[in-house]
Amino acid sequence: MILPKINANFILLVGERGVGKKYTLRESYKDAQFNVYWAPDISVDTIRTIIREAYKRHNTVFIIADADNMSITAKNALLKVVEECPNGNSFILTLQDENNTLPTIRSRATILRMQNPTPDELFQYFWEKYPDGNPNDAEKASAICSTYGEVDIVQKFGAMKFYDYVEKVIDYIDQTSTANALKIANEIAFKDEEDKYDLILFWKTFVYICIIKAHDAKDLVLKNKYSQWTYLTSRHLVYLRTTGVNKRALFETWIIKIRNCDASSGN
Q1: What pTM was estimated for this model as a whole?
Q2: Which of 58, 80, 113 is the last residue of a domain?
Q3: Do residues 123 and 197 both lie within one domain?
Q4: Alpha-carbon span 47 to 136, nearest angstrom
Q5: Same structural domain for residues 146 and 235?
């Protein structure tokens, strides 16, 4: 994807993680006849440096990537310069969710949303990136992932292996003790642990499998259980979008709620 030509000095480029926001910007501006300034991070000091540069430079695009977790102080500082970009400069922020920035910032921006690839596009990407891969991995990755980046995340372990692990959790999470169920958290990456399973993909896969199980269940109690688990987990995926959320606490609360679902009543 190449960004369309838009007469705007301030753009929010919004899309799920791994959809290719930074790649799109690099491709869009690789042959640009003007300067592009990539912010190294989203700290207050960096934002203040960018603001100073904006008053020194001319005809420069300032790109601030992964701005969802920018502090309130940094956002307020940025607001002052994007209200009226000086010297023919422009600003682009990339975000997973535009609600993770200030309403006053959103109101001043042109918002561009990147669409997720289709399962067929993800399947094709898998084989382009992993030509020696396993067909089962390709099938599962294109089913449970939403973006190209997520395919890469899940394929670190093997998509089929990841899928099988989540299915195993579904089968025993309400059959074992609470203490054992809570041990599931030990396998989940709540920060940047490379050797643990990604939380967003874990919940997406959990929802995907529960939908299948609810559809195939002949018993009404089982159908209700998987339907409730689908709804509850989908809600927790939304909670993950809240900046600063305690992921471990949220995950452990989810486990307790999953185990306390009363499938026999449908509530």
Answers
A1: 0.86
A2: 113
A3: yes
A4: 45
A5: yes
Side chain identity at residue 258, one-letter code: I
Q: Which long-range contacts (CB under 8 A, 24 or more apart) does 225-231 make?
A: 225/174, 225/261, 225/263, 228/261, 228/263, 228/266, 228/267, 229/170, 229/258, 229/261
Task: Please name the residue that has the structure tokens 């689908």.
Answer: 230
Give the Cβ contact number of residue 182 at 10 Å: 15
The set of residues, in sequence order, having a beta carbon less than 8 Å from that of 27 and lying 6+ positions away, is 1, 2
Q: How does pLDDT run across 23-66, given as a tens digit for each residue?
A: 999 988 887 777 899 999 999 999 999 999 999 999 999 999 99
* Shared-domain flag, residues 100 and 183: no
Which of 253, 243, 237, 152 has its CA nearest to residue 202?
237
Consecutive H or E run containing 63: strand 60-64
**Residue 1 belongs to a domain:** no
pLDDT tens by residue, 158-203: 999 999 999 999 999 999 999 999 999 999 999 888 899 999 999 9
Cα Rg of the chain (Å, integer):
22
* Total tally of structural domains belonging to the chain: 2
Task: Indicate whether 2 belongs to any domain.
Answer: no
Residues 6+ apart with CB under 8 A from 51: 77, 78, 80, 81
Residue 105 sits in the same domain as residue 134 = no
Helix (H) or strand (E) holding 165: helix 159-172
- Planar angle of CA 75, 79, 85, nearest 5 degrees: 135
Give the domain-ending residue among 98, 113, 128: 113
* Range(s) of the domain holding residue 29: 10-113
**102 and 174 housed in the same domain:** no
